[in-house]
Amino acid sequence: MEPKLKTDFHSKVVPALKEQFAYTNDLQVPRLQKIVLSQGIGAAVADKKLVDNAVEEMTIIAGQRAVPTKSKKDISNFKLRKGMPVGARVTLRGDRMYDFLERLLVSALPRIRDFQGVKEGFDGRGNFTMGITEQIIFPEIEIDKVNRIAGMDITFVTSANTDKECKALLQEFGMPFKK
Question: How far apart are CA 28 and CA 106, in angstroms?
Answer without folding.
Answer: 28
